[in-house]
Design a protein that fits this description.
Layout (H helix, E strand, L loop, with lengths): L1 E9 L5 E10 L4 E5 L6 H8 L7 E6 L2 E2 L4 H7 E4 L11 H11 L4 H15 L14 H12 L6 E5 L7 H18 L2 E5 L3 H7 L2 E6 L2 E6 L1 H8 L2 E6 L5 H12 L3 E7 L2 E6 L2 H14 L6 E5 L3 H9 L26 H8 L11 H6 L2 H13 L1 H4 L31
Parallel strand pairs: 3-8, 3-9, 6-7, 7-8
Antiparallel strand pairs: 1-2, 1-4, 4-5, 9-10, 11-13, 11-14, 12-13
Length: 409
């Protein structure tokens, strides 16, 4: 479904984002692409979605050569970027309709598709509400729904659950899994949540410095470490702790060690037997161990092995409020202050009287949005399907994308 051979991308600054990268993604597969910041994940997605060029290599997406048929690739894919792509000043229905018209779908097909997607993502009751009143989880669902309006065969998800609370994240995992299982979508996702990759992905690819280090199933990756994982935390990494690490590594019960700042990760045959011996060695060398943990190897241990660092989702940048993008430096304008005083509900999309009082102009926008969101009245605002020179090239099975998913596998 996706083939990458010898991909190379160097930015004008000289930064080598992707370095002779090879990767193959099978049809109907969920592949998680993991890597530290700056490893090349976003660049790969930009290349695969035709949003940026590359210097060397061969890329094929859905059977099309990206150099020769980028237009056909765009028809076959859907993409959800890290930052939401929906318009906050439109309703959910208007966002979906706009995306459908951009893909030159017929009015009737757009209306059918809106109903299907709204039902699937649980957005039916909020379709006619302004997106600015949606919670973070609802906006992300709408974002994914817009990328599926044209029935793509491949879906790219760049950090799909970043910034969501635990409940919203787990709900979105279920929907992503269902999209793959019930409708056969091939999905490439990047994530800083290792649990997300572990639960969703058929295979995990770890990238570092623009190169794929390893590709395998989550279970095989964890099993490759074998034994148990012990982590010792010291006040800092110094000559004495380095000597301790070397002595521990020389013991027959230790298979491998990896330093991560002031933490020493040891992979041993039997953690229960190794811990007393390690603590005895630390006492003998008068080294204080501030913290010790013991567990079976996880994807984080695999990630540390191939990148030298761990993924900590809590260290990611906090997503700013949607209105801060236009509210001036620091969000200190009068507009921003009004939203700070009475922000939209995070759980309920209905606007309150207080909210309307805080921003009277919003009532006019809502009235306009409600009128235009009725597709029977808004159709005249969109170009006629007969005026378009392009039509969908999907085969007949795409018309049954939702209704008869088994026929599309």
């Amino acid at each position: 479904m996706i083939t990458i051979k010898g991909l190379k991308k160097v930015y004008p600054s000289g930064t080598k984002a992707v370095d002779e990268l090879d990767l193959m993604i099978k049809e109907g597969e969920i592949l998680a692409l993991l890597g530290p910041n700056g490893a090349g994940k976003s660049t790969i997605i930009k290349v695969l979605t035709t949003l940026c060029g590359f210097d060397d290599g061969y890329v094929e997406v859905s059977g099309f050569d990206i150099d020769k048929e980028p237009g056909k690739i765009r028809q076959a894919i859907g993409c959800v970027a890290q930052d939401t792509g929906v318009d906050f000043f439109l309703t959910g229905r208007e966002n979906l309709a706009l995306q459908g018209h951009l893909y030159r779908m017929s009015k009737a097909d757009i209306n059918v598709r809106i109903s299907e997607l709204a039902d699937f993502f649980g957005l039916t009751e909020q379709l006619n509400e302004l997106v600015s009143s949606y919670s973070g989880g609802m906006r992300r669902k709408l974002d994914i729904a817009t990328s599926l309006i044209h029935r793509p065969k491949i879906l790219f998800l760049d950090e799909p659950t970043l910034g969501l609370d635990t409940t919203s994240r787990q709900n979105l995992w279920k929907l992503i899994h269902q999209l793959n299982q019930d409708f056969g979508l091939t999905i490439l996702l990047t994530s800083h949540y290792l649990e997300e990759a572990d639960k969703l992905a058929h295979r995990v690819a770890i990238i570092n410095h623009g190169k794929i280090k390893i590709v395998d199933t989550p279970e095989q990756l964890k099993n490759s470490l074998q034994g148990d994982a012990i982590t010792l935390e010291f006040a800092g990494q110094n000559e004495q702790t380095k000597q301790f690490a070397e002595k521990a590594k020389s013991e027959n019960y230790t298979k491998n060690i990896i330093w991560e700042n002031k933490k020493l990760h040891l992979y041993v045959n039997n953690g229960t037997h190794a811990i007393p011996k390690l603590m005895s060695l630390a006492n003998h060398m008068a080294i204080e161990v501030q913290n010790i943990s013991f567990a079976r190897p996880t994807l984080d241990d695999v990630f540390i092995k191939y990148t030298g660092t761990s993924i900590d989702a809590n260290e990611q940048e906090v997503t700013e409020q949607w209105w801060e993008k236009w509210a001036g430096k620091g969000g200190q304008t009068q507009w921003a202050k009004k939203w700070q005083k009475n922000p939209p509900s995070q759980e309920n999309t209905e606007e309150t009287t207080d909210n309307q009082a805080a921003w009277p102009e919003q009532q006019t926008w809502q009235d306009t949005a409600t009128q235009s969101s009725d597709h029977t009245k808004s159709e005249t605002h969109w170009p006629s399907a007969q005026e378009n020179t392009q039509t969908n090239t999907d085969d007949n099975t795409t018309d049954k994308y939702w209704h008869s998913p088994k026929e599309n596998k």
